[in-house]
Write a structure and sequence with these properties.
The complex is a heterodimer of chains A (235) and B (296). Chain A is an alpha/beta fold. Chain A has one domain: P-loop containing nucleotide triphosphate hydrolases (Rossmann fold, 3-Layer(aba) Sandwich). Chain A is built from ten helices and ten strands. In chain A, strand 4 and strand 5 form a beta hairpin. In chain A, helix 3 packs parallel to helix 6. The longest helix of chain A is centred in the C-terminal third of the chain and has 18 residues. By secondary structure, chain B is mostly helical. Chain B has a single domain, classed as ABC transporter involved in vitamin B12 uptake, BtuC. Chain B contains eleven helices and four strands. In chain B, strand 2 and strand 3 form a beta hairpin. The chains are: A alpha/beta (235), B mainly alpha (296). Chains A and B meet through helix 2 and helix 3 of A and helix 6 and helix 7 of B.
Amino acid sequence: MLKVTDLSVSYGAIQALGGVSFEIPAGDIVTLIGGNGAGKTTALRTISGLLRPLAGTIHFRGEEITRLQPHDIVARGLCHVPEGRMIFANLTVDENLAMGAYLQTDKAKVAGIRDYVFGIFPRLKERLKQVAGTLSGGEQQMLAIGRALMGDPKFLMLDEPSLGIAPRLISTIFEKIVEINRKQGITILLVEQNANLALEVSRYAHVLETGRVAVHGPSQDLRQDPQLKAAYLGG
Amino acid sequence: MTEFLQQLLNGLSLGAIYALIALGYTMVYGVLRFINFAHADVFMVGAFAGYYLGQFLPEDTLWGGSIVLIGAMAASAALGMTIERLAYRPLRNAPTLNVLITAIGVSLLLQYSGQVFFGAAPRTFPPVLPSRNFEIGTLTLSSNQLVVIGVAIALVVALQFIVFRTKMGTAMRAVSLNPKAAQLVGVNNNVVITFTFALGSALAGAGGILYSLNYPSIDPLMGVMPGLKAFVAAILGGIGNIPGAALGGLLLGTVETFVAGSQYSTYKDAIAFAILIIILLFRPAGLLGRFTAEKV
């Protein structure tokens, strides 16, 4: 579904990604793990068009999207839940969800997706008229995911969904992520610092180290890898 | 008492014009975080567009006046969009200071092109609207003042509707809050920014006509002082805040008029700005501004 080939990205003189390649098959949950500064967020931002690569290509469902504008990429069904959630803090929950469906023209379909989102995150329905900035961290993350789902994605990229969230909500959110993948058939690319969690829910994993894919393989195998355990999984 | 009401009315009609211009400053600041100094000159071009349109229309008619108003708004909107496209868009990723300097450059370009094309000598704005004076007791109401206040209120209500009730308005607020997140839900930020310029410039154009109806001598530098006052009004209300800009404009216009009508009339601008400084000392983010304010 998504194919990234030899992707290189720099911030000025600093190279963030140096020739990263990976492929994500339709229907899968794939994770990108690695330490701070490994280039995980950069990879997502380049895929969704917020950053321009120096070299390399990105193909989505067979079509090259490397230099498209972000809104054109969203229109193709690739939605990105950014790090730090980036909800519209002064808009209501309702308006945030409406913005998620910005490119959708079929009102009946939007209403259907909305009901589906409320089914996954009933909390959002309760807080519909609340200003999004006043939600808790976990609720904001639900809203960020719900907003991306409103765009009717075929492919969803989640950047650090566990960041800054109460521990008991983390497992709920990860259950929902798996549910979105299983029930809706939405392919998911998950970026996480919490490698244990990421390897638990994903089927395949790529480990980034200083801008390169150091290791990749089925998540189950990586969980047993002694070197990886020492580096990311806390022994 | 009569004098107080009279001055209040004069002040509100001047303030309504400041408010219309201030809205453009505040909206552009909301989406791009810079002060569009060329905005005051869009106001001037609006007045001249009305002046030239007026040459083809009969005087003293409601429909003629409406055409002048709408035509000037359209011309100003087109100018605003052109300025954004040619001068500001190429600097989208440049530091704000560069954009600010460019805005000053565009402002000077418009002022002095105006002197080339329109001539530096003041012209008399045609009385496109029928003008009457009404006496209520000892109070004199001029129809032009009522038109200014009425049109300004209608435009502000329309603007509130667009910003808070339409999809484009929600997108404007979204871009203002977080441009990257707006892109990630599929908003083409350039379209929203162009729309914002069109809207703000149309209001400035309307301001230009309303101003010229009450002060019918127009020249290419006429935008400078009202533009500065409106800029101050936008800051006073809380830059980026739409109701704040309207409130700031009304307040500044009223204060200025009252001071002008007192024995300290020579100091009217000084006192108006002193009040600004005092208000900002106590409310640094402006009257309605919050540091995390709704920035549109």
